[in-house]
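Because discrete structure vocabularies remain unfamiliar, we first show an illustrative case, written as a sequence plus integers encoding its fold.
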Amino acid sequence: MPEQQDPSKNINDDQLLADAIPIDVDHTDENDGTDHDAEGLTPIELDESHSSVVGSTKIRTFDTRKPHIDHWKRTPNITGSGAIHVKTFVTKLRLDAIDHLDEQINEWLDNHPEYEVKFTTQTIGKLVGKNTEDAMFTSIWV
């Protein structure tokens, strides 16, 4: 049995164009591959009154978070008889990040001389966010 050929394979470009649906070209279309003159077009005036920022060139944030302030009702026990508050620090498992964690903990303790460290825990786990990565969680009980 002879194999039949697909009739669409024998159609050339001229036949395709002859059967195509005509499309009106918008003369303002710059991407249609033709040159257009600017007759009949009205230029748009730019409002440059807001082009320069008056005042400070300081970068500002829209973040509304305020610095952390402790509003604990219980005062820290300085008698050594037990912990009443906990603060947890998190860091990635890299030497520079662990050094930064040490700085954060020391700074936090320096800013709170009324706290006496009673107990600490450290846990290694996965920090899940945009990327999942190993992290160290340090909890300090005061």
Summary: The mean pLDDT is 75.
